[in-house]
Design a protein that fits this description.
By secondary structure, the protein is an alpha/beta fold. The protein has 3 domains: 60 residues, Nucleic acid-binding proteins (OB fold (Dihydrolipoamide Acetyltransferase, E2P), Beta Barrel), CATH 2.40.50.140; 195 residues, 3-Layer(aba) Sandwich (Rossmann fold), CATH 3.40.50; 142 residues, OB fold (Dihydrolipoamide Acetyltransferase, E2P) (Beta Barrel). The strands form 4 sheets. Strands 8-7-6-9-10-11-12 form a 7-stranded mixed beta sheet, covered by helices on one side. Strands 17-16-15-18-19-21-20 form a 7-stranded mixed beta sheet, sandwiched between helices. A hairpin with a 6-residue loop joins strand 7 and strand 8. The protein is globular and about 65 Å long. The structure holds S-adenosylmethionine (SAM).
Length: 451
């Protein structure tokens, strides 16, 4: 039977690690979206999950001085921007505190966490990858927007304030042309309709834009005329790809692709190194802050011309290729084969000859290398949220590189791993960087130096 809760007046005492307001109710601690420290509100407790209560504000009684009017009218319903109603300085303060508290919980003491580096000019319109689902409203009009948090219901909206401004008019023109060409959006319930998603990837440093049209089936009648008409209306698009995804799953992209116009990829650059981005490649979504992040990573590595560098969890080779300019050699390892293909290609287009890349599990590869007496002066690690695995850390402690630079997207696992590495390494520099303004996410770069 569904648990019933009475509404309560609560005070927000903190922000959780997912950016939710922490409140105490007579039923226990309740996490509330869009409620900030110091604020008081009537809340409705919606559900209990894994022993925790989750609720929403029904009426705000006392406002935080840091609360601001959000630019986006649907930021609460969409759930993508937890912090659009919090001023930017307070967002950065929260992120610095989040990293500090994670270190303290893991008993890493006496280390200064530097203030989170935010976007200097405009913390909006930064996203270079925009994924838009399409559907029909009850009047049969084509709509685009975002899924309501935790659902597949599309909230129709024409503008997202954290996306590159160039995306908006492309989406609008595609929808107009779909009507003219009688292409219907895909309906998840009936399985009918052609176009599922639009994905727009923009280059920050070059005037290039890629549009990927995800279709439910292969046949795209009249596509040449459609592409021609779209190119006339949006000459800024430099390449158009059809991605075919016949599956009825949450995964947006299918395996098969067809280039409809241009090269099928765009190019962007980070700290002077060019990277080719195809519809499926991973590329950091904030092109301005990625330079801030990597600049710090390179600075903390204190690279020398004689250094052999290991770039673990290297993706498309971004960190390693930037480091290669200042080092003797770079070896990158990544588990996704396509990313390694991209990394090799990226090395080639930049004429970087002192780098090599291999596909494999970082833990297994470093262990094999260690068993063959291979040693590194500097190791960069940029693992997924779950952090480093045991095999990787144990081998790292065995081969003991002089310097380790840890780039992390999850303070909790970062702190867990630092507590282990701390035995043989001094944790000197901890620098949070805001890669995702308006959200609770924080990236951190840490410099570790052999004791
Ligand atoms: C946070 S991303 C970093 C990518 C890259 N450094 C960048 O900034 O573009 C983490 C990467 O680790 C890879 N990965 C996940 N598990 C891995 C493993 N066990 N061994 C090697 N790579 C792994 C993922 O595929 C992903 O590309």
């Amino acid at each position: 039977m569904k648990e019933k809760f009475n509404p309560e007046l609560v005070k927000c005492i903190d922000l959780s690690f997912e950016g939710k307001g922490v409140t105490k109710t007579s039923y226990g601690v309740c996490f509330v979206d869009g409620l900030f420290p110091g604020e008081e509100a009537y809340i409705e407790i919606q559900y209990r999950r894994a022993g925790n209560l989750f609720g929403k504000v029904t009426s705000l009684v006392k406002k935080s001085p840091h609360r601001i009017q959000p630019l986006c009218g649907v930021c609460s319903a969409c759930g993508g921007c937890q912090f659009q109603q919090l001023d930017y300085d307070a967002q950065l303060e929260y992120k610095t505190k989040k990293v500090k508290e994670a270190l303290e919980r893991n008993k890493i003491k006496g280390i200064e966490v530097l203030p989170c580096l935010g976007m200097e000019e405009n913390p909006y319109n930064y996203r270079n990858k925009i994924q838009v689902p399409l559907g029909l409203n009850k009047h049969g009009k084509i709509i685009s927007g975002f899924y309501r948090a935790n659902t597949h219901e599309i909230i129709a909206i024409d503008e997202c304030f954290i996306e590159d401004v160039r995306a908006k008019s492309i989406v609008k023109n595609v929808k107009q042309l779909m009507k003219e060409f009688r292409y219907s959006p895909y309906n998840e319930d009936t399985g009918e309709g052609l176009i599922k998603h639009l994905i727009i990837r923009t280059s920050y440093h070059y005037k290039q834009i890629m549009l990927t049209i995800v279709t439910a089936y292969d046949e795209f009648k009249g596509r040449n005329n459609f592409v021609k008409a779209l190119k006339e209306r949006c000459p800024e698009i430099t390449t158009i790809v059809q991605n075919i995804n016949k599956r009825r799953t949450n995964v947006i992209l299918g395996e098969k692709e067809r280039i409809l116009y241009g090269t099928g990829h765009i190019k962007d650059s980070i700290l002077g190194v060019d990277f080719i981005i195809s519809s499926k490649s991973f590329f950091q979504v904030n092109p301005i802050q990625v330079e801030v992040l990597y600049k710090k990573a390179i600075e903390f590595a204190e690279l020398k011309e004689t250094d052999d560098v290991f770039d673990a969890y290297c993706g498309t080779g971004t960190i390693g290729l930037i480091a290669a300019k200042q080092a003797k050699s770079v070896l990158g390892v990544e588990i996704v084969g396509d990313a390694i293909k991209n990394a090799k290609n990226n090395a080639e287009i930049n004429r970087i000859s002192n780098s090599s890349f291999i596909v494999g599990d970082a833990g297994k590869v470093i262990e094999d290398l260690a068993n063959n007496n291979k040693r590194f002066d500097v190791v960069f690690v940029d693992p997924p949220r779950k952090g480093l695995d045991e095999k990787f850390i144990n081998t790292l402690l065995k081969i003991k590189p002089e310097r380790i630079v840890y780039v992390s997207c999850e303070p909790e696992t970062l702190a867990r791993d630092l507590a282990i590495l701390n035995k043989s390494y001094v944790v000197k520099k901890v620098q949070p960087v805001d890669m995702f303004p308006m959200t609770y996410h924080v990236e951190t770069v840490v410099g570790l130096y052999r004791k």
